[in-house]
Design goal:
By secondary structure, this protein is α+β, with helices and mostly antiparallel strands. It is 27% helix and 10% strand.
Length: 227
């Protein structure tokens, strides 16, 4: 099967952003680092055999979560803890009586009002590890605790459970497209499955665009990642 034939459903790719993508369904697969929420319940009820995709934008740098999503219902405690950097309550872009966004996040505030954005809060694990590198491993693998070392990523395990036999049995008639795509020089741990990494990566976004538009690009390697 040629690279062009592997990309028959070009709409699948055209609707993705430069990030990792996978079918929008998490039902039946335990991601223990995720808190329960109506948003995740909706994910669990979605069907895997649709053209909907999940876009994961993986930001590896640090983020000031409390100044991104401001706890308006605990504003006194918030300002007591960070009096020198707290966002003024009047400047916060109110989402609900409990939360507001940083004043520079106007477009996201608008998306929230349109029902296109939801927030998942209180995501974590007991006794957080203060090492950036170890915390990243826990985040990408969704391990139960600081002491548990897991070699596979939560997304990779999910894809392995939904698409058994990968990569040997793929592509096929029911799934002619890549299970996951990532823009970057290498595939993230989050896509690592029990037997193989469940995605493919493009280091050059132009190559990704060529495949989407023309069904052509650089020849895939002979390794399991190029199948």
């Amino acid at each position: 099967m040629t690279e062009k034939e592997n990309m028959k459903r070009r709409d699948f790719l055209k609707r993705t952003a430069p990030a990792a993508v996978l079918p929008l369904m998490l039902g039946g697969f335990s991601v223990k680092a995720f808190a329960r929420s109506p948003f995740l319940d909706a994910l669990a009820k979605s069907a895997v055999d649709t053209d909907r995709v999940l876009v994961l934008v993986q930001l590896m740098g640090g983020n000031d979560g409390l100044n991104t999503v401001i706890p308006l219902d605990q504003y006194s405690a918030y300002t007591n803890a960070r009096s020198n950097i707290a966002i003024a309550e009047a400047q916060a872009l109110k989402l609900t009586n409990a939360t507001g966004l940083h004043p520079q996040m106007g477009p996201m505030h608008q998306m929230f009002g349109q029902g296109k954005l939801r927030l998942v809060q209180s995501v974590g694990y007991p006794s957080p590890n203060f090492s950036h590198f170890r915390s990243t491993d826990i985040w990408l693998t969704a391990s139960d605790s600081e002491d548990e070392t897991v070699a596979t990523g939560w997304m990779g395990r999910y894809l392995d459970s939904e698409f058994p036999g990968y990569p040997t049995a793929y592509p096929n008639a029911s799934m002619p497209d890549p299970l996951a795509i990532q823009i970057g020089s290498s595939l993230s741990t989050v896509l690592e499955g029990p037997a193989a990494n469940m995605g493919m990566s493009f280091s050059n976004p132009a190559s990704f665009y060529n495949i989407v538009k023309e069904g052509s690009g650089e020849a895939a390697t002979g390794s399991r990642y190029g199948r």
